[in-house]
Amino acid sequence: METHDISWINLFLGYLMLIIPISVLYWYQTGLVKQVLISVARMTIQLFLVGLYLEYIFSLNNMWVNIVWVILMVIIATFATIQRSELNLKTFFIPILSAILISIIIIDIYFIGFVVRTEYFFDSRFFIPISGMVIGNCMERNIIALNTYYRSITRESLMYKYFLANGATRNEALQPYIKEALKASFNPLLANMAVIGLIALPGVMTGQILGGSSPNVAIKYQIMLLTSIFVGTMITIVTTIILGNRYMFDNLDNLKPDFKRQGRINFKSKKSK
To answer: CATH no. for residue 172?
Structure first.
């Protein structure tokens, strides 16, 4: 079964579907029409550039080039996570970078080395897409978890101090906030996993089928990718929180005031005095 290509004319016809959401946004005067056009243009340019670059990488298939590409993705994901979570760059760069790297190393070794068992571990056809899928989902879920975690600690700082005053260790006092962060981050993912295949076919599976793969083969890869994403995300979030806690609290277990990026959020705890 061969891949059915999309001609440039038909691709342009596909873009015409955007008339529907753009018309709705314009009708209700949301002010988002320009942002939509810019986002679509950026998406198109970026994907075509990545496509050209990946074709070169796939043909080269060099171990060091593939590793550098994945490390670059990890660094970009780290900056994006810090920016979207409004955290201090100096404080959180190493914890988040380390957490994503640890996750990628574990998932790639297990997925590629023990499940797929490719002859060449750093084969760009497997190493880069699998790493990219895990990194992207780790970044998305990590942002939700970190926002929930530090917002909860800040909002309920008196409760945290109450736990400490009653003999709880710092780790014990932080348990409710870690629990809340994990639930906020994983509830949407678990809901999606529970109904996948019933409501909609996942993107990877659809892409493989459109690319000519057997549905049974596509299902196996989709199952393993979802499992890897779930495990990798869990490793990333927990590791980020554990490593971040080493920088976030002083010797008296008080939350340091400079963990947030300055000039973005003013907490009530600072104004109460």
So the answer is: 1.20.1640
Alpha-carbon span 24 to 153, nearest angstrom: 40
Q: Give the separation between CA 215 and CA 231, rounded to whole angstroms.
A: 24
With contact defined as beta carbons under 8 Å apart, do 262 and 89 qualify? no
Per-residue pLDDT tens, the chain, 273 aa: give them.
556 677 889 888 999 999 999 999 999 888 889 999 999 999 999 888 888 888 888 888 899 999 999 999 999 999 999 998 888 888 899 999 999 999 999 999 999 999 988 888 999 888 998 999 899 999 999 999 999 998 888 888 889 888 888 888 888 999 999 999 999 999 988 888 887 766 666 666 767 666 667 778 888 888 888 899 999 999 999 999 999 888 888 777 777 776 676 544 443 444 443
Residues 54 and 71 in one domain: no
Q: Token match 């959401």: residue?
A: 21
Same domain, 28 and 49: yes
- Distance between first and last Cα of the chain: 70
Do 54 and 66 sit in the same domain of this protein?
Answer: no
- Domain of 207 in residue numbering reads as 62-271
Cβ-proximal residues to 34 (8 Å cutoff; 6+ apart), any chain: none
Does residue 246 share a domain with residue 180? yes
CA-angle at 158, arms to 157 and 160, nearest 5°: 65
Q: CA 160, CA 77: separation in Å to the nearest integer?
A: 30
Contact 105, 127 (CB under 8 A): no
CA pair distance 199, 209, nearest whole angstrom: 17
